[in-house]
Amino acid sequence: MHRTIFQTPIVNTLLRGFSVAFLKATGWKIEGHLPAEGQKSVLIAAPHTSNWDLPYTLMVAFALRLNIYWMGKVQIFRFPFRGLMMWLGGIPVQRDKANNLVAASAQALMEAEGPVQLVVPPEGTRSHTRYWKTGFYYIATSAQVPIVLGYLDYERKLTGLGPVFEPSGDIEADMARIKAFYAPFKGKNPQQFATD
Questions:
Q1: Counting beta carbons within 10 angstroms of the beta carbon of residue 91, is it exposed (0 to 12), middle (13 to 18) or buried (19 or more)?
Q2: Which among 69, 59, 55, 56 is positioned nearest to 16, based on CA atoms?
Q3: Rounded to whole angstroms, how far apart are CA atoms 6 and 109?
Q4: In sequence order, what are the residues at sequence separation of 6 or more whose Cβ sits closer than 8 angstroms to the Cβ of residue 143?
Q5: How far apart are CA 182 and CA 54, in angstroms?
Q6: What b/e string do you get for 1-14 counting C-beta neighbours within 10 Å, with b at 16 or more?
Q7: pLDDT tens, the chain, 196 aa long
Q8: H/E/C letters for each residue in the chain?
Q9: Where are the chain's structural domains?
């Protein structure tokens, strides 16, 4: 995996201080921490309903000392922003073409040295959708890593990391349990987030 802002000394420290101060000054509360078993994991980012989710996710990552990579549609990686987005931990995804993204992501997780959390929004889009994509689940099972349940609740200004979820192999039952965890959380545009 490529080098990111999260591995850049001094800048990382400065941005952690800024993130903690900004979140506190704007009334956000951060809960949880990354346990040892989640050091290498797939991290769900939900609800994902706004462009504001990315900067808040980055600030939470700095505050909790995470080493994240995140997937974004290829359009936000166009010139002149590609270098910046990659440095921020972005991985461009071309959603309209069939590719082996799950296998490649799982392989990258397995080969990564040290802690790494791959952030995946299960809805796959900021728009309203009733069906969550299951790529995050298959990446975790293929790489044999747990799923960490990360959240942003704009209504209560509450963010952080929930429990570490170990996939059982029964995807329907597991997805129902994961969605039940997210049911109380409100995205910036809550009408666009569904867990039923």
A1: buried
A2: 59
A3: 16
A4: 40, 42, 105, 106, 107, 109, 110
A5: 18
A6: eeebbbeeeeebee
A7: 889 999 999 999 999 999 999 999 999 999 999 999 999 999 998 898 898 999 999 999 999 999 999 888 888 899 999 999 999 999 888 766 546 888 888 998 999 989 999 998 886 544 545 578 888 999 999 999 999 999 999 999 999 999 999 999 999 999 999 999 999 999 998 777 666 6
A8: CCCCHHHCCCHHHHHHHHHHHHHHHCCCEEECCCCHHHCEEEEEEECCCCCCHHHHHHHHHHHCCCCEEEEEEHHHHCCCCHHHHHHCCEEEECCCCCCCHHHHHHHHHHHCCCCEEEEECCCCCCCCECCCCCHHHHHHHHHCCCEEEEEEECCCCEEEEEEEECCCCCHHHHHHHHHHHHCCCCCCCHHHECCC
A9: 5-115+125-183
